[in-house]
Amino acid sequence: MSFVCRFAPSPNGPLHLGHAFSALVNHRAAEVAGGRFQLRLEDVDTVRCKPEHEQAILRDLDWLECPPSAPPTRQSDRFGVYEAALARLEEEGLIYPAFESRAEISRAVIAREMAGNWPRDPDGVPIFPFRRQEISDAERARRREAGEPHVMRLDMARAVARVGTIYWQEAQGNPLGRPIPVTADPLGWGDVVLARKDAPASYHLAVVLDDAAEGISHVIRGKDLFQATSIHRLLQELLGLPAPVFHHHRLILDIDGRKLSKSSGARSLATFRTTGATPDDIRRLIHLPPRGGKAEPDTAETQTS
Ligand code: GLU
User: Are residues 26 and 91 in the same domain?
Assistant: First the structure.
């Protein structure tokens, strides 16, 4: 099997140290395995994603000396593929249009929480508070025909019943470590969105279709996505896609112990660069050995945590 991994940022803002870590770990794994390192621009959100951020990502990767093996792919080029997958899932009765606005969802969650406990998904977000059965399929079809804005949601209970128990292989300790099976547990996510109001995909749908199309053998990404892998494995089974090996690496945290994020204003790699930092300074900050050092990804990854 040939080794192919990827770095998949959204071009909706500048990269920070957390991105640098993920890109460098992926790049190094491909180097050690003699495989390929791809760049995928996750630009399903065509409003927030901008060409200038794409340019900045390529520049940052060059500067860090972890350029991709080929030109980047873009999710916005693949809407037709996502539409076809949605059509297939819909034909099988596994997804449905949902019309509830954010405000309606939030009101319903508050009402349910007042009445007792309302479950939250593994990310801590309350699960979707309505049931598919509350509105008939005919009524949903009518509202869709009438052009009412909607998302497409996965009927989680039905999807899980369809595939039964599923697993993924998680590489231990480093991206090339020995994989062990992990049982997927997607039920706790509730009826997740598979297509946004404004695009024929959500992150979850696009990522599994792209990983399959690009022949990704190893999905190497942050631990914050560990639980989401259950959704991805479920979709891979439903759509007949191959299951890559997964590795969820440590996260780069800020001084308060929180994951770095664009929205909380993490210092960008470009800012580090323009204020005189070198690529080796960046590696030091994220506890990776200097470029040209002997360490393999395992030592690189397990040095600190
Ligand atoms: N676009 C996702 C992110 O930036 C990457 C997800 C993935 O690697 O699967 O978090």
Answer: no
Position with higher pLDDT, 264 vs 301: 264
Residues 70 and 108 in one domain: no
pLDDT band at 301 (very low <50, low <70, confident <90, very high): low
Amino acid at 109: V
* Cα dihedral across residues 172, 173, 174, 176: positive or negative: negative
Pairing of the two strands 218-222 and 36-41: unpaired
Extended strands (E) in 12-144: 36-41, 73-74, 95-98
Cβ atoms of 243 and 236 within 8 Å: the answer is: yes
pLDDT score, position 89: 98
The answer to whether 208 and 194 have CB atoms below 8 angstroms apart is no
Residues 175 and 182: beta-carbon distance below 8 Å:
no
Q: Same domain for 100 and 37? A: no
pLDDT at 139: 98
Angle at 42 between CA 270 and CA 155, to 5 degrees: 145
**59-87 pLDDT per residue, tens:** 999 999 999 999 999 999 999 999 999 99
Determine the average pLDDT of the residues in 288-305.
60
Pocket test for ligand 1, best of 43, 57, 207, 210 (most atoms within 8 A of CB): 207
**Residues 62 and 99 occupy one common structural domain:** no
Residue 192 near ligand 1, beta carbon < 6 Å: no
Range of the domain at 118: 80-194
Ligand 1: centre distance to CA 9 (Å): 6
Q: Which two tokens stand for residue 271?
A: 């800012």
**Ligand 1, from 225, 229, 231, 248: best to mutate by most atoms within 8 Å of Cβ?**
225
**263 pLDDT band (50/70/90 cuts)?**
confident
